[in-house]
Amino acid sequence: MENNINIEIVEQGSPEVPSLIKYISSSEVAGFDTSDFQFPSPSSKGSEATSQGIQHDAPVVINHQRKYSVSMPLSSEEVELPALDGKTDGIPISSSQSATATSNHPQQSKCYSQPMPKGHVLQEAANGDKVNNHPGIKAFKDKRFDSFKTWSGTLERQLSILRGKSPKATAQDGNNTPRNIERPLPVDRYFDALEGPELETLRASEETVLPQDKKWPFLLRFPISCFGVCLGVSSQAILWKALATSPSTHFLHISLKVNLVLWIISIVLVTIIFTTYLLKIILYFEAVRREYYHPIRVNFFFAPWIALLFLALGVPPSVTKNLHHALWYILMIPIFCLEIKIYGQWMSGGQRRLSKVANPSNHLSIVGNFVGALLGASMGLKEGPIFFFAIGLAHYIVLFVTLYQRLPTNETLPKELHPVFFLFVAAPSVASMAWANIQGSFDYGSRIAYFIALFLYFSLAVRINFFRGFTFSLAWWAYTFPMTGAAIATIRYSNKVTNGVTKTMCVVLSLISTLIVVALLVSTILHAFVFKNLFPNDLAIAISDRKRKPQRKWLGLRYRSHESKEIENYLKFVNPDTIDLEASTPQPNATEESPSI
C-alpha cells in the first residue's frame, strides 16, 4: 500500500500543492483506518515543509480523519460522544488546537461500518421477544383494555370511588372519542346498540369502547352464560337419579353409577367455571358490572346458585343421604339478595320495570325460588320452602302474563321463536315437584302445575322447524334443564298415576332430554377445538355510552326532491283531460323524422 502511494506521489507531484501538507504513512498512526479513504498525493516539495508546520497541523488532520472511522452501535442509547479532553486515541492535543477544533463548525461524520452484537446479546433479545410476543401476555399488556381492568386506575381514583365521589376516568372508543365507563349504562343503550333474541349482536351503526380488530383476553370473552353448562349437566344427574330410584321406572334397571359419574362431572364443571369467573371478577370487574346491567344476562347471575342447588338435589345416595340444614340457608341467601334487587326494579316503575325488560330469560330468576323450595322440603324444612314458593308463584304469574300478552311497549321479545322459549316450561315443572314435597304427595295442586308445563312443552315441540337457523351459543345450555325438569316431573307423576302412557312418557321425555344434552356437548366441543370460535369477542359488554349519529344521504334526497318538484309543476299546468305522460316525455330522437316504409 505504501509503495503504491509513493509511486503516485512521484508521478503526480505538482508545485501547486500547499507546503503545509505533509504525507504521513498510515503505519505511523496506531489504529488508523484507511479502508475507505485516500489521502491526496502531495509533492516531494511539500514533504520538505518546515517542522513547525508539521508539529502544529498534523494532529488536527489526524483528528479530522478519525471522524470518518467511528463505529456506530446498534441502538442510539449506547452512543456516547467523547468530549475533546485533549486526547485522541492516545495522541495529545494542545489547548490551542482543541480550541480551534471546537470553534469550527463540525462536519457531519460518516459511518462506513456498523458492528453487529453477537453472542448472548442476541440470545437474550430473542428470548425476550418470545416472552413478549406470547398472545396472552400481549393481550393483557394492551393499554386499550385498561378501562376494564380492576387495578389499572390510580390509587386516588379508586379511593374516590370508594368514598362515593363521581369518577373522572374516561375511556376511548375506536374513534378516539372519550367515553365515560364509570357510570352504569342505561337499559335503553343495550336495546339500541344490540339486537337478537339474547341481545348479543352489535348493530352496524354502533361502536364499541374496546378494539374489534383483535382477539380480547380470555376472561373478557368468558360470559356469565357459561353457567348454563352447569345447569344442563347437573340436571342430568338429578334425572338419572330419579330414573334409578323411582318405582315407575324400575323396569329400566338403571344403575346409580350413572348418577355418580354425572354428579362428579358436574362438580368438576362447576369448580372450573366458578374459578374462571371469579378471576374475571378480580381482574375485569368493569366487564362483570356491564353484564349485571345487561337486561338479559342479569338473569344468569342466578345460574351459579341454581347449579349448586341442583348438585345438592342430585347427590348420590352412596355419598350421603341427609344434608345439613345450614347448606340450604347458605345457598338461598344469595338468591334472596338478588331477588330483592331484581324484583324491586320490576316494581319500581323505572327504566328497568318488568313491562320494559321482560324476556323469557327472566324465568331463571323465578326458577331459583322453586328449586330452593324443592330442596328445603326434601331436607325436612317447612317455613322456608313455603316462603320461597309463595314468592316464586306470585312473580311467575306476573311474568307469565307479561310475556304472554306481548305489550306493544315491550321491544325485547324477538318476533321469531328461539330455544329461550323453553324456559316457559321450567318454572311450572319444578313448582309441581316442590309443592308435592311440601304437601307430601303429588296432589291436585302439583298436577295443575305439571299439566301447565306439559302443555307448554308440547306447544313448543310441535314447532321445531321454527328453531332452525340460529347460531350456536353457550346460553343454549341453560335451555336444556327445562326439558330435563319436565322429564323428572313426569317420573314423579308416573309414580302417582302408573300406567303404560305415563311410563312411555317418562322414557320418551328422558331420552329427548339426554339427546339434547349430548348434541349440545358435541357442538360445544366442535366450536371449542375445531372451529375455535366458542368464545368470540363479547361485544355486548363493550358498547359505548352514546349512539353514533347516522350519516344522512343528502345527495339522494336532493335529487329525489328535485324530481318530485318537477313532476308537481308539470301536473299543475297540464290539461288533466288530455294528459299523456309517455307522449309528453321528450325522446332523444323526437326531432328527427322516421323514414317512411
UniProtKB/TrEMBL annotation:
Keyword Signal: no
GO MF terms held by the record: voltage-gated monoatomic anion channel activity
Keywords tagged on the record: Cell membrane, Ion transport, Membrane, Transmembrane, Transmembrane helix, Transport
CDD domains: TDT_SLAC1_like
Keyword Ion transport belongs to the record: yes
Compartments where located: Cell membrane; Endomembrane system
Compositional bias annotation for Polar residues: 93-112
Membrane topology: Multi-pass membrane protein
TM region positions: 218-240, 260-284, 296-314, 326-344, 386-405, 417-436, 448-468, 474-493, 505-530
Entry's Gene Ontology BP terms: intracellular monoatomic ion homeostasis
Main subcellular localisation: membrane
A GO term from the CC aspect: endomembrane system
InterPro entries named among the record's database cross-references: SLAC/SLAH (IPR030183), SLAC1/Mae1/Ssu1/TehA (IPR004695), Voltage-dep_anion_channel_sf (IPR038665)
Pfam family, one: SLAC1
Descriptive protein name: S-type anion channel SLAH2 isoform X2
UniProt gene name: LOC106766409
